[in-house]
Amino acid sequence: MAELKINNIYKGDSLEILKNFPSKSVDLIFADPPYNMQLKNDLYRPNNTKVDGVNDEWDKFSSFEDYDNFCKSWLKECKRILKDTGSIWVIGSYHNIYRVGNIMLNLGYWILNDVTWYKTNPMPNFLGTRFTNATETLLWCSKGENYKKYTFNHKLMKKYNGGKQMTSVWNIGLCIGSERIKGEDGKKAHSTQKPEELLKRVILSTTNKGDVVLDPFFGTGTTGAVAKKLGRNFIGIEQEQKYISIAQKRINNINFLLPEASWIEEEKEQQIKVPFTDLIKDKIISVGDILYTRKRYNKKAKVLDNGNLLYENNITGSIHRIGSLIQQTVSCNGWKFWYIIKNNKAILLDDLRSKYLQTHYNIGRNLDTTDNFELELNEEQETLKNKKRKKNKKN
């Protein structure tokens, strides 16, 4: 197997070149394969001008069986080349995506999402015989059901989406204007050029800085261009020299990074189970301490030496069980339900757990920097507070 050359465009047949790549060598694959959708007859607009459709030789196959065998071959090689922590995106239209999806499932891929690209400026259906086709589908897959350590930058994409969780419907327009690459004849250089915004979301969401992104159908190099702008590496495969020349020039002319290139996914807090009794042993909480709920429930419970709570003098249970009993729900996260009063400040138990994790494992939030807030006191607590104020005034 030949050593991979990153940030390089390989010239030749995708399948033959893929066979020479080492196993488990790339972090992400984005594939925009032939759709097998060529027009059988010329199509004209209402003003009698010819539609420049997809009638390239690379998109022609003799039969569905021929197309299926082609897809099985390159998808099989892609699975071998992909790292166990990697994932693959395949884009297609109604002409091919269902066939491709079925093949991927039969090869053992595991579909994580089907993302709908909604084209905000689709080409009309000039004959008026069907609805305007305004969508394409991207299948995002891991190598298999048990490959669960794939990269997904959930918080980063939420930030990119203005603080809202990004959905699987992406509203992005077709390439137009300056983004659409033109040939010397003034016509579009490639019939299926994808918008950079589409690749930006793909690469930003499922790779980290410095990762290697493979595109086995490179075309005019949108994948490579966006990868470079985001501080990622790319590998492209393309058999037509005219496209390679356009892609290489396009990528060479990029001399900047997008702001998002420096974004890093916030590290997920290490999941360490902390028994409530450990906080008692560490004297963070004492036996006999009173825990309080928000004013909405107006309840309290006493901490027992076995880590349970005593509620209403005759009911005992964990912080979770008593919490669910008060809320009348099936379950409750007691860490985020109960508060303790320290120095006239209401502190959430989850903050105390973070203090424990900070002390013993050097993870979690430091309690000194936690945004504590005054608890909405219940009537009994308010009475006690008023008595203390009156006492201080007398003294």
Give a verbal description of the structure.
Helix 2 crosses helix 3 and helix 5 crosses helix 6 (222-229). This protein has two domains: 8-262, Vaccinia Virus protein VP39 (Rossmann fold), CATH 3.40.50.150; 276-394, no CATH class. The protein is of the alpha/beta class and 395 residues long. The chain is built from eleven helices and 14 strands. The protein has helices at residues 14-18, 64-81, 97-106, 154-160, 196-206, 222-229, 241-252, 276-281, 319-327, 349-361, 379-394, and strands at residues 8-11, 26-31, 82-92, 110-119, 135-142, 169-172, 212-215, 233-238, 290-292, 300-303, 309-311, 315-317, 339-342, 345-348. Helices cover 29% and strands 19% of the residues. The protein is elongated. The strands form two sheets. It has an eight-stranded mixed beta sheet with strand order 1-8-7-2-3-5-4-6, with helices on both faces.
